[in-house]
Amino acid sequence: MYNAPLKDMLFVMKELAGLEDIATLPGFEDAGLETAQAVLDESAKLCGEVLAPLNVEGDRNPSAWKDGVVTATPGFREAFRQFAEGGWQGVQHPVEYEGQGLPKLIATPCMEMLNASNLSFALCPLLTDGAIEALLTAGTEAQKQTYVPKLIAGVWTGTMNLTEPQAGSDLALVRTRAEPQGDGSFKVFGTKIFITWGEHDMAKNIAHLVLARTPNAPEGVKGISLFIVPKFLVNADGSLGERNDVHCVSIEHKLGIKASPTAVLQFGDHGGAIGYLIGEENRGLEYMFIMMNAARFAVGMQGVGVSERAYQKAVGYAKERVQSRPVDGSAKQPVAIIQHPDVRRMLSTMRSLTEASRALAYVAAAHCDVAHRHPDAATRAEHQAIYEFLVPVVKGWSTELSLEVTSLGVQVHGGMGFIEETGAAQYYRDARILPIYEGTTAIQANDLIGRKTVRDGGAVAKSLLADVAQTIGALGRHDTPACRSMKRYLELGHGSLAAAIDFVVANVKRDPKAVFAGSVPYLKLAGIVLGGWQMARALLVAMEKREDDPSFYGAKIATARFFAEHVLSQASALEASIVTAKGDEGVLALDADQF
Amino acid sequence: MYNAPLKDMLFVMKELAGLEDIATLPGFEDAGLETAQAVLDESAKLCGEVLAPLNVEGDRNPSAWKDGVVTATPGFREAFRQFAEGGWQGVQHPVEYEGQGLPKLIATPCMEMLNASNLSFALCPLLTDGAIEALLTAGTEAQKQTYVPKLIAGVWTGTMNLTEPQAGSDLALVRTRAEPQGDGSFKVFGTKIFITWGEHDMAKNIAHLVLARTPNAPEGVKGISLFIVPKFLVNADGSLGERNDVHCVSIEHKLGIKASPTAVLQFGDHGGAIGYLIGEENRGLEYMFIMMNAARFAVGMQGVGVSERAYQKAVGYAKERVQSRPVDGSAKQPVAIIQHPDVRRMLSTMRSLTEASRALAYVAAAHCDVAHRHPDAATRAEHQAIYEFLVPVVKGWSTELSLEVTSLGVQVHGGMGFIEETGAAQYYRDARILPIYEGTTAIQANDLIGRKTVRDGGAVAKSLLADVAQTIGALGRHDTPACRSMKRYLELGHGSLAAAIDFVVANVKRDPKAVFAGSVPYLKLAGIVLGGWQMARALLVAMEKREDDPSFYGAKIATARFFAEHVLSQASALEASIVTAKGDEGVLALDADQF
């Protein structure tokens, strides 16, 4: 069971992410509230009715490999057909390639629903989005025309081939070779691992985007190029030709997302896999980063989605399960466990973390839309910088907190949570990959520090802090317990984040080990302060509109207060982790052999 | 691979838990350092060589049920024979029933090793210990003579039968009936679920300890009695008689600890299961609590054990896996990931949490020994009160932190961590039950607040705080970075815990919902402050002895400092969660239907 939280989603889109402003951007004139509502309603139906029921099935009957052929979980193929025919792969892609050309702000809740309903299934469109993004960024017009409409139609799907056994986080170690054939094509040789939906039977062709080295390419990341290697070669008329020399030699046996096949792909074992260069030689990593920003944001939405799903399941159980009398003696009989304070604390933690991460992600999506569509270049650049700052936070923080949320989801179920048939454990297992793939949390945190904070001397980070300060000022104009609490903890959080930014900028050259030892706490601190800022903004809206819908806005007020007291209150501890320790005395005090 | 951390264990036993003092207690005269060392060495051998290699096997080939018969994982039966023949079931049990009569302080590291090597296997002895404890507490001499030596010899094993489908945390809802037969025996009827090692083929008989109601017993927890229901009836000469009417109708399909069969037991479907009352009628819960204190402490050791195991595995991988150049540019080539600051932060978090939880548990075990053996009654009572205060902390905190430690263990492995063959994921799955069974963390926290803090007006809690203050004073006499840092954060933690104790004691009657809404944060706060206190004590010892063994004591100093800055620093956030929110405005502000 999954019911998309449409009212919450629309609240965030409208009140926090500025949907109406987005609808004033060129090309988005039809993408206002009405469109958003209609699109979300349809998405909710598909996800709730078709994809959510297949989630458990995928866990019990994972994708299966036999003789190089991967068969998806029963039901997935038909569901993917419905997904594709509904146009869902194209929501945010350009109309000229048969996409729907809608704002990322509208695509994002669709992405959330897709992931909440079925994380394994959602990965196939997620990777296909990445391939589309790469082609649109760096492909020739012919490449775009050949591949993009097919990918958007869901007739073909896409993959990203980065990792090799010796090259995980460190792409400098990529060894896959691409040899020019003289006719403009290349022959690709090598082994790629951890390729999500790298082989399957849900589409007629698979477009593998592959990082490889050309002969004489420079060492390290500056010698990596991007190639497209289709599973079946494509004839000039767009029809499918010969089977290419890329083969799935096995799929992994994983902790979670079992329906999503994680392939080992062998390129060129039978003479060479035909591939075509995308963009310029040796600029592969640069293109990959563009598509990775999109993919990282999308993985952040996986965190939000699985958190929402785990929350809904836990609430359902807590309302049904009757156990123990109330602690205040207000009833003689056992009550539903949702009445017990600690269950309430767990559910409120799950809820407030999910809401905060959703709000931060949707706000980021709106910045992305402005960055792409605003007529003024300076405005575009400003929003692009904010979006790029937020991407590692959305990816890192939403996925880390999904571990806590799904773990609490198991805990709410008590002993039943540990029994696989209950279903809560699947979210706990599935979520565990999210802070790892598309760049571990440490990789996100290094990006947040290196490219996003230090490079501009903390300018973007501090501009966000200035906005937070404005919200703190607005909170000061309401004398209620919730606003007082939020003001107090948001101020403390603001102070901690400001101190952390200063520390990072001041010390990164002199003591890089100390700064990077605090990178993940820095990312988490940014997450709770910026997420808390969204909760504060929601609180202010709710204060104003409370009388229109007391239950809905009352819940927003209580949830914001809970977040302030139970989550934002962690800011000082994170600050301590970041600024206290010097590299060689703190985290790096021990020699490796003392471990 | 598991290497018991013998040096660390002996350090804690000797320097923090006062092994030499324990060896002055009556009956423990031979249980000094030499004995401890010999026992630990032998235990390490059995656990490292026999049980640890079976851990993965148990995950891949769980216990299997067929027609009421449960077959343990291949190898377990033989391993259990070795365990029993080595006398390991009897380490802490009385010599008069053929136990070894050693202090709990020596039994505890053995318990840790057992759990670190094989959590599923360790559960069988753990539950058998519980049965022995119950019999020693409330059994007749004949019952003790009949069962205890057999249980200690590992010829028979024991179980605890509390849970029923409608009665989990709430034992007031137990419905299993026991009807007197006129000959002193009873016939037991009912269904028990979640019975660990409730059926298996590793021993000749199973002694089920069962909570049930006699006819006309009072409602609720005051009408529950404790019975022993053997799988095979026992003849007067101790030989086995008829099969009793208790049958395993199924075992659960679980997230983890798969080798340990979790049975649904049906009592009395074929005329009634013969059972015998243990102790007095209607006092079952009281006896159960005595044995639960032991079992809860043991589950806390499961948390320590699985944390240590996950830590060792992560360290091994981090030393081998080569990826990326150092952030400070100190090498041109990729290095082992243990050189990267964030990996170091993760490993140090795992290490410091494991060491702190181990130290707190061993110190608690020493209090238990004094409480049982000291010649002076007042001293016994004082130590018993401290032990009882610490049991829910050891259980709740060690198991909650094992979730964090095992999760970090997966994260250190990156993508490989998500692949089941790697093994890191098993610890993550296995650990998830620990904060649930033998009383969820919320149940532990309620116990810590209700019975252990409020009942004596916070007296024991404050006596521990006074001891912490002494350590803070001692830290002030060393002007080094580690001691300054530890002093600072231990003082802050002391202040937060003091504030929380005052809040709990002052408000529990007036606003019980508010107090219990902070119960789990209160338990965690007690854990980090009291665990941090042990780290501080270790730091002081290390300062003094540093020159004797610079690597070992240097690591103690660095780990203590890390704990202070990265873990103890969370105290203020926990305090905020406890003392800020009023019941109806904070955690309980929403109606159930607003969720």
Automatic annotation (TrEMBL), chains A, B:
Domain called Acyl-CoA dehydrogenase/oxidase N-terminal: residue spans: 74-154
Classification via InterPro entries: Acyl-CoA_dh-like_C_dom, Acyl-CoA_Oxase/DH_mid-dom, Acyl-CoA_Oxase/DH_mid-dom_sf, AcylCo_DH-like_C, AcylCo_DH/oxidase_C, AcylCoA_DH/ox_N, AcylCoA_DH/ox_N_sf, AcylCoA_DH/oxidase_NM_dom_sf
Pfam families documented for this protein: Acyl-CoA_dh_1, Acyl-CoA_dh_C, Acyl-CoA_dh_M, Acyl-CoA_dh_N
Signal sequence interval, chain numbering: none
Cofactor annotation: FAD
Key words, A-Z: FAD, Flavoprotein, Oxidoreductase
Domain Acyl-CoA dehydrogenase/oxidase C-terminal: residue ranges: 282-448
First-level EC class: oxidoreductase
Catalysed reactions, as listed in the record: 3-(methylsulfanyl)propanoyl-CoA + oxidized [electron-transfer flavoprotein] + H(+) = 3-(methylsulfanyl)acryloyl-CoA + reduced [electron-transfer flavoprotein]
Transmembrane residue ranges: none
Domain of life: Bacteria
GO molecular function: flavin adenine dinucleotide binding; oxidoreductase activity, acting on the CH-CH group of donors
Residues annotated as domain Acyl-CoA oxidase/dehydrogenase middle: 160-269
Enzyme Commission designation: 1.3.99.41
Domain Acetyl-CoA dehydrogenase-like C-terminal per the UniProt entry, residue ranges: 465-588
Family note: Belongs to the acyl-CoA dehydrogenase family.
Known function: Involved in the assimilation of dimethylsulphoniopropionate (DMSP), an important compound in the fixation of carbon in marine phytoplankton, by mediating the conversion of 3-(methylthio)propanoyl-CoA (MMPA-CoA) to 3-(methylthio)acryloyl-CoA (MTA-CoA).
Protein name (record): 3-methylmercaptopropionyl-CoA dehydrogenase
